[in-house]
Amino acid sequence: MDSNKTNCASMKQACYLCNCEELRPVEVIRKRPALETDFGIKPSAYLRRIMLCNSCGVYNNLHTYDFEKMYFGKYNKDTYDSSILARYNAIMNLPSERSDNKARVKRLVDFCGERGLKLKGLNVLDVGSGLSVFLGEFLKYGVKGYCIDPDPMSIEHAVRNVKVSGAFRGSFMEYESGFKFDIITFNKVLEHVTDPVSLLRKAGGHLKKSGFIYIELPDGEAALRNNVLTDREEFFIEHYTIFSKRSVRGLSELASLSAIKSESIIEKSGKYTIFSFVEKRHPLISG
């Protein structure tokens, strides 16, 4: 039996973002791109389809592999070929002109300045913290850093080496607490889950009334303008969704949040990214 045909028949047929079934084929990928992480998928079984949703404009990476389970311990082992601390230190030591994380922190610092927020003592939750380089940089400004990650390696590293104020190992959907945060961040996280809307909606429930959420997502629309799809990290297999400005707005609306500011950028590393600041919807005051 042809395993590719079997996988194709069992693939999800609806959009991960809005659940629309009107998807337009963009690309069929039958071979792992050279720069994509090798997750141990047999070459004969490798198959995925990039489909564009006609309704919300998000690119869907449709396949049958469960990467959400993989993040509970295996992802870091597959992704980082050296110790997690050595990798952390190497990235932390990058100069500003080469560091995506330093640029990310600057965006947040500038935005807080625009809103008149004093950074010292603000409670910041980073969901899907990974190496915690972002928190390591942001802690320099006196914020209190908290993190959530499914990988035990990441959590141990965040507590022991980065010195976060609190850490939760597991899925954000499993996290239960009455504690509210001033800032919640999703740095290249929401594209790794099959239900980004529920994750973002839940974040709104853990946000202070005056707080905001910072999101970074891969910009598929910009990446495709001058590049071959299979060569771009934005479309690699672990990304269930790849975005456009239109679909980022749709994501916020579906999660009952309001986008304050969104922008498409090319990062220091060459990644095409959309960042967005969102907040809770405030009810209109009638007179």
How would you summarize what this structure contains?
The protein is α/β, with parallel strands linked by helices and 287 residues long.
Please tell me what the overall shape is: globular
Distance between the termini: 68 Å
Query: Given the structure, what is the number of helices?
Result: 10
Q: What does the largest sheet look like? A: 7 strands, mixed
Q: Indicate the structural class.
A: alpha/beta
How is the secondary structure organized here?
Layout: H1 3-10, E1 23-29, E2 48-53, E3 59-62, H2 67-70, H3 74-79, H4 84-92, H5 100-114, E4 123-127, H6 133-138, E5 144-149, H7 152-162, E6 166-169, E7 181-187, H8 196-205, E8 207-218, H9 220-223, E9 241-242, H10 245-254, E10 257-266, E11 272-280
Parallel strand pairs: 4-5, 4-7, 5-6, 7-8
Antiparallel strand pairs: 1-2, 2-3, 3-9, 8-11, 10-11
Can you tell me about this structure?
The chain has 287 residues and is of the alpha/beta class. It contains 10 helices and 11 strands. Strands 6-5-4-7-8-11-10 form a 7-stranded mixed beta sheet, with helices on both faces. A 4-stranded antiparallel beta sheet has the order 1-2-3-9, with no helix packed on it. Strand 10 and strand 11 form a beta hairpin. The N and C termini lie far apart (68 Å). 39% of the residues are buried. Residues 1-9 have low confidence and may be disordered.
Provide keyphrases for this structure:
11 strands, 287 residues, 25% strand, disordered N terminus, 29% helix, 4-stranded antiparallel β-sheet, alpha/beta
